[in-house]
Design goal:
137 residues; Immunoglobulin-like; 4-stranded antiparallel sheet; 3-stranded antiparallel sheet; 1 helix
Length: 137
């Protein structure tokens, strides 16, 4: 014999609404570094979105054809004595990204600019060494 259970659809709709009216979900994950890479005849141009980070907290390393970008956003407490934080969704911490290009980079000629939350890297290609023919005597 089967039992009939009567359920009010409005009960499920409002369940927990009045208990936790300020709960918006879990904490946000660390943001990913969005990167655009363009190849040009004599090098590469990289645009990386790093909003809200100071220029001094961004570090770029080039090792051959591998480029690494690291940025750190520091937390600044601006809470007044009579205020209470109900939700904080801004991320504070370190993000990094590494990628490999098709050709080695000339580390001495790399330039970087940071404006409006976008890091622009100009990565010139290293001159390819020509194979030398050796004469046998």
């Amino acid at each position: 014999m089967s039992n009939l259970i009567r359920r009010d659809p409005l009960d499920d709709l409002f369940r927990g609404f009045f208990v936790r009216p300020v709960d918006f979900g879990s904490q946000p994950d660390a943001p990913a570094l969005a990167i655009d890479v363009e190849e040009r005849e004599n090098g590469y141009v990289v645009h990386a979105e790093i909003p809200g980070v100071k220029k001094d907290d961004i570090h770029v390393a080039v090792d051959g054809a591998v480029v690494s970008i690291t940025a750190e956003r520091r937390e600044e407490k601006n809470v007044k004595d009579d205020a209470r934080v109900l939700r904080a969704e801004r991320y504070f911490g370190k993000v990094s990204r590494s990628f490999q290009l098709a050709q080695e980079i000339d580390e001495a000629q790399v330039t970087a600019k940071y404006a409006d939350g976008v890091l622009e890297l100009a990565l010139p290609k290293k001159a390819a060494t020509q194979a030398r023919r050796i004469t046998i005597q």
